[in-house]
């Protein structure tokens, strides 16, 4: 595992974008596992800037996103599909038919999840998976206490995750209570993992994930067993390490 410390959010975003860019340049038809949340926004901005300068080409890239709220359509401005369009896909030359996000509108959870596992298999697996981390150590929407061996599944979001995400919605009641998420098994099957974290609210989760016992109670702790993990974090997020 390699840990890079960035000076601040911008520096972390640029360093993470450099690592993602290297993947894109070395393998122009790479499958990128992408993530939402506020943390990767700066990284996406940097990638867009480099694309506009002519330094990056997304035309052969495929992407698979980690998760989506159950019940939200891609047009809903709080859906993760909408987030990806706004923060990356609409600004680069990626072929949108090769950008995958779980189908939040599929009511049959088993079907939504089986379909998404099929997508991941059909694209040939993930070359580089980007991850943020929740304050409780969740990755994607794999909440504490879930089995490590799951593939894509439907989760009941924890109270703390619902609260943390409420800032994006008009009221707590509007925050979806369930989501479809890639499982830890999908994430661990990625060839490379890039974890990005900033701010003191992530310090405890980051410490436990990188140095604590490997336990489903801290979902990101499983990353200690992956052979190619790069962490980019700021001083605050690394403050307990
Ligand atoms: C959500 C997402 C995660 C993300 C987490 C942290 O729960 N499903 O993928 O890592 O939020 O978000 P943020 O980066 O805004 O702190």
Give a concise summary:
By secondary structure, the chain is α/β, with parallel strands linked by helices.
Keywords for this entry:
single chain, 241 residues, alpha/beta, seven-stranded parallel sheet, three-stranded antiparallel sheet, globular, binds 2-amino-2-deoxy-6-O-phosphono-alpha-D-glucopyranose, NagB/RpiA_transferase-like, carbohydrate metabolism, hydrolase, Glucosamine-6-phosphate deaminase, EC 3.5.99.6
The portion of residues forming beta strands comes to 15-25%
How big is the Rg?
A: 16 Å
Number of helices: 7
CATH topology term: Rossmann fold
The rough form would be described as globular
- What is the SS-derived class? alpha/beta
CATH class, anyone? Answer: Alpha Beta
Number of domains: 1
The mean pLDDT is 96
Distance between the termini: 14 Å
Number-wise, the strands total 10
CATH architecture descriptor: 3-Layer(aba) Sandwich
Give the topology string: H per helix, E per strand.
EHEHEEHEHEEHEHEHE
Q: What kind of sheet is the major sheet?
A: 7 strands, parallel
Q: What are the distinct ligands in this entry?
A: 2-amino-2-deoxy-6-O-phosphono-alpha-D-glucopyranose
